[in-house]
């Protein structure tokens, strides 16, 4: 999937980090509950992605009251 299609689905990333040697970029989206990381190659196509709980004040506070996924 090309980077443009990912950005059409998720919106603009919060953070874009260029990889060394022109190997592509790391795109990061964060909200109060989740963080999504997408790594693209030099051709702009997705190489890998990851999703993890974000470390936000809201998540930590709610996490003390109820069990979050």
Please characterize this protein's 3D structure.
By secondary structure, this protein is of the alpha+beta class. The protein has one domain. The chain contains two helices and four strands; from the N terminus they run αββββα. A hairpin with a 3-residue loop joins strand 2 and strand 3.
The major β-sheet equals:
4 strands, antiparallel
How are the strands of the largest sheet arranged?
A: 1-2-3-4
C-alpha end-to-end distance: 27 Å
Q: Please tally the β strands and state the result.
A: 4
Helix-strand topology string: HEEEEH
At a glance:
The chain is an alpha+beta fold. The protein has helices at 3-10, 57-65; strands at 15-18, 25-30, 34-40, 46-53. It has one domain.
Key phrases:
25% helix, 2 helices, 69 residues, alpha+beta, 4 strands
Give the topology, please.
Elements: H1 3-10, E1 15-18, E2 25-30, E3 34-40, E4 46-53, H2 57-65
